[in-house]
Write the structure tokens for this entry.
Amino acid sequence: MKKIIFCTIIMLIASMTYSQNHYDINQLEQSQNIGQLNDFKNFDKEFDSQNKNIKILSITQREDNGFRVIDYICLLWVETEWLNYEKVTFEYDANDLLIETISEIWNNSQWNIDRRLLDTYNEENNIAERLYENFENGEWHHILRLCYTYNNNGELFERIDQTWDANSWINSFRVNYLYENGNLIESTFQEWENTQWANNNKCTYEYNAYDILIEILTEEWDNNGWVNEFLNFYTYENNILVEMLFEEWQNEQWNNSVKESYSYDEEFNLIERLIQFWENEQWVNMKADIYTYNIDNNLIEWLRQLFDNGLWINAYRFSYTYDENGNEIIKIYEIWENGQWIYINKFLYTYEQYVGVNNLLFLETILENYPNPFNPSTTISFHLSNVSNHQTAEITIYNLKGQVIKTFSKLPITQSSNHQIVWGGDDNNGNPVSSGLYFYKLNVNGNTEAVKKCLLLK
């Protein structure tokens, strides 16, 4: 179990490394087992999707459309009806940073406060502390605290996990991060033992010429030194991830273990994830995820299938419903049993429209480029609904690492409300960039209005 948990942590770090961007990324479900809803770790993961300082690679990308989730209700399907189970409420500060998350459990025909998560930030709006508390006998009680430290470049340098023991915080777990030229190159994981930090695992990261993650080596401490444990390889086509190979160190050599293959549609949405394991010197199908999107590229179904006796068998699925603003308002989880889908739980999300830091509210922003894919140039156009309040706009091009490639700044906003710029596939110094997937972001008066994807093919 400890090894499984650690592997999960490694995959999360890999995804964070793969998508170190400066725009919001929508996180898919982290918990698939309704029996784990009370677990604080899943509680944490659910809220990470609301935290703009923790970026996790996912299937879909969410634009900042002027709405934010303020609560959701989880319902359980019991026999023939939906029953209340949990309500989670989110509170934000003036900078739109999540500062408090409260969970309530339905009992005796009313909502009862159960636990909460408190986030505090430093002056750069990076998360500095995350505090977990339980509500018992009318009082809040400390459970867990995560403390984050950053270097002079604003990169996460250290994370320390502490548990509350009666009257004081006790060290539990620590991760130290090392960077080179903005890339995470090493993570060291330690546990608190006998009043000192003891090595547990270490990860070393390698990148290709375009600063995209291609390898993670995981080593385990055996009291005498670091010993090989896992090795992850990442393969790309046009800078888009198409395969992840997982190997284990056994009998003094690397051995195949698990392979994941990824397929995309013409809009670069992930549509299939095939997972295979190595057996008898060949890859054997194990499970697959199939993703379906609507015309707006919003994920509407995530289907998990298992491979059994030569056939793909349904296991479970998530279904998603959106409002007219593109906000996810309903999520339903079902399992396949006796030839039919059985409801398990349903999430109902509530949003509020909010004003950004510049006290401007932007509606119905349209951002697109043509042609896409393109070579050698593409026209990026955008439309804004309430141009009377706008002053200047900015288009920024990013690579998959979130690094700025090209910036079109101080674009004047006219009454026509339709605006265009041409990107010739070069960087800010006029140098041509490589083939691959890029993101372009529209900022108006300092507020992020939309983010889209484009593919350069040479």
Notes: The mean pLDDT is 82. The radius of gyration is 23 Å.
